[in-house]
Every structure is written in C-alpha cells, then in structure tokens.
Amino acid sequence: MRPSDLDPAFISHAPGYWSEDATENWDDHRWQLRNRVDSLADLDLRLNLTDEERAGVLLAGTKLAMAITPHFFNLIDRDDPNCPIRRQVIPRIEEGWNAPEEMADPCGEDSHMPVPGLVHRYPDRVLFLVTDRCASYCRYCTRSRVVSGVGEQHLETQWEMAFKYLEKHTEVRDVLLSGGDPLLFSDDKLDKILTRLRAIPHIQFIRIGSRIPIFLPQRITPELCAMLKKHHPLFISIHSNHPRELTTEVRDALGRLADAGIPLGNQSVMLRGVNDSVEVQKALVQKLLMCRVKPYYLYQCDLINGSSHLRTPVAEGVAIIEGLRGHTTGYAIPQFVIDGPGGGGKIPINPNYVVDTASGKITLRNFEGEIFEYPDPTPISKETLKALNHRALNGCHCP
Ligand SMILES: *Cc1c(COP(=O)(O)O)cnc(C)c1O
Questions:
Q1: Are 300 and 337 within 8 A, CB to CB?
Q2: Contact 288, 240 (CB under 8 A)
Q3: Which CATH number fits domain 110-348: 3.40.50.300, 3.40.640.10, 3.40.109.10, 3.20.20.70?
Q4: Could you tell me if 183 and 143 are in contact, meaning their C-beta atoms sit under 8 angstroms apart?
Q5: Nearest Cα residue to atom 1 of ligand 1
Q6: How far is the CA of 153 from the centre of ligand 1 (A)?
Q7: Cβ–Cβ under 8 Å, residues 30 and 2
Q8: pLDDT class for 268, splitting at 50, 70, 90?
Q9: What is the domain partition of the chain in residue ranges?
Q10: 398 falls in which pLDDT band (50, 70, 90)?
Q11: What is the mean pLDDT of residues 61-88?
C-alpha cells in the first residue's frame, strides 16, 4: 500500500507511463481507447512483469481479453506485482485453474433470460445486457463467459425482442442497463435506447451500471451528461474498489454526472490484496462521499472460473462492515451482499448485532460492544384507557 492510498487527497497520475506528447490527447476518450494496453509487448514496455503475469497474459487471449486504458494503467505500481490496481486488470496464471466451487455463469443468468440479453430474475426489474465490451477488463468479471468477446459464449442481444418483452411485461418498472459497459456507446446510440425505454409507460426507473467513470473519465463529457439528464429519473451505479482509483479526473467526471442530477451509487467487490482491509475500505467509502457517490453494494466476489486467487472468505466482508458501521458516516456504508450461486439473487449479509430475542425484548450490542435491551411495547390496560377517557371527557387534565 502506498502511504497516499489512505490520504483523502485526489491525485492526478497523467501522463505517468506515457510521454509528454500524449498529454495533448490525454483528455480525448477516443485516444484513450485507441491506446489501451492490450498486448504483452505493451506491458513489457512499461512494467516489470512476473512469470505468473506473463503466462496469465498469454492465457487471457482465449478467456477474457486484457485491455487497460492509459488513464487506469497510470495508477499501477511499476515494480509491485501485488499492487491493488494491477491485481484487478493484469491477468495472472491462476486464472487458468478453476476451483471446484467455480462456474462459468455463477449468477445463473443464462437460465433467467426470457430474451437473449435480458435477465429477468426479480419481480419488478430487469438486467439488460446491451454490449459485451468494456473500456478495460476486470479479471474477476462475473460475465467473463461473454464479456470481451474472446471466450466460449457470445452475447447476442435481441434488441427488438427485448423491447417487445418490456412493452408487454407491465410488471417491469425498473431497467438496469449493463453488459459490458453501456457508456461505451455513442451519445446518439445511448439516447436512442433510453428514448425507446422512456416511451414504455410502466418503466419508471432506469439505471446504468458502468465502470467508465473510473476507467475512462474522459468519456463523461458535458454532451453525454446533457443527453442523460433528458431521461430522468436515471441513476448510475459505478464500480470502484480502491481509493487510488478516485483521481482528480474521476472526481470531476463524477461531479459532472452529479450536476446533471444523476444520483450515483458505487458497487465494490471484495478482492484479496485489493480492498480486504477496513482501512482501505474506509478510505474508499469516505472518498466516494467526497465525489457525491453513495456506496451501494459491497459484493462477495462471484464464484467465477479462475477467481480463487482474488476471492476472500465471507467473514472478511462481514468484518469490514462491522469496522465501518458506527465508526463512520452511515451514508458511507454499503450493503454487503452475496449473489446466491446458481441464480439465488442478491442476499444481504450483516454483522449480527442481536445478542438475544427472549420474549418481550431484544438484546443488542452496539458498534462498541456495549449491550442494550429494547423492550416490546407494553399494551395499555382497559382500566387505564377508561380512566384517561373519563378524565379527558370531563375536562380534567390533571395526571
Ligand atoms: C443486481 C441485479 C438487479 C438489480 O438489483 P438491485 O438490488 O435492485 O440493485 C436486477 N437484476 C439482476 C439480474 C441483477 O443481478
């Protein structure tokens, strides 16, 4: 951990590994995408790779592609293979081993798709997978079976069928656009999708799940924000795991979204060697609040194939929530969830503050370990009620 990782200051890392002549194009998101680090040769130019990483990169070509925007790459430590940023985006050979508990589709999405690309798992909301591409690829991607386009399966979103399904299913009041990363689409394409959804009267609430504000903050242009704000109520869930990711550029991009009236939430994933400590999580959630982002969910890492080196025991996540609750702003505390393997949906996991539930009262402990009792309500007796009535009706207010 760099000492500055726990510092609340926002730091810009540009141009970092890139030469000064990159700086004139730095703010252009197209330049960022064109110059992604996506080959072993690109990596070797900039990092001292370990054997595990070198082998991992070769493997990635057939499982989940490697791609890292220059903006995000700059956050990586050159010499530290355990760098928390590096672990998220640079493949390692451990990805080549599937632990017995792991799966290709850990959230059972494929079995909940009434239309290819549309996951209808909950009564009133759907997950709409609109693309299989991202600005950079997270090594623990829960949808690595389709995302990046090099794996065994392919995402074939059936647009017309999906819109027809949504028009017919009046119980769907909430649509979550994800993928892949929907903010990779042009403003125009995204505008058309949102307009089509907004024409469906029963769809009240639209969300976009995106890591672009973190990987490619340059994409959050004033034009994009002006387009998005036509489609309110629209929320965005971002994905940030470590306080170093919140740079000045990211803070400003999030500020533009917030200024467009878009409520922002963050979804983090518990990752070994990245954010598996209370100190790092506390720095992250406090910095998110400074960016006007509410920490929404902290996910237990899904049982995706080749992820055991990044996953943590569930108890660690519970300990982190316990280390936050009461110790910092309530707004900063995400809900820790496990997506029930095989398609159970999100299940909340909380530290246990209930010590006992004997009849008539609950015994609790607070964040400092002190014990408190909260009794059930005592019913008012018929006699007392009668006496109160009598006194009130007779104009006597004495006790
Ligand atoms: C996460 C998820 C949602 C949204 O769940 P919320 O708890 O409302 O954020 C909807 N559909 C699917 C399939 C999901 O995985």
A1: yes
A2: yes
A3: 3.20.20.70
A4: no
A5: 346
A6: 22
A7: no
A8: very high
A9: 14-94, 110-348, 354-393
A10: low
A11: 95
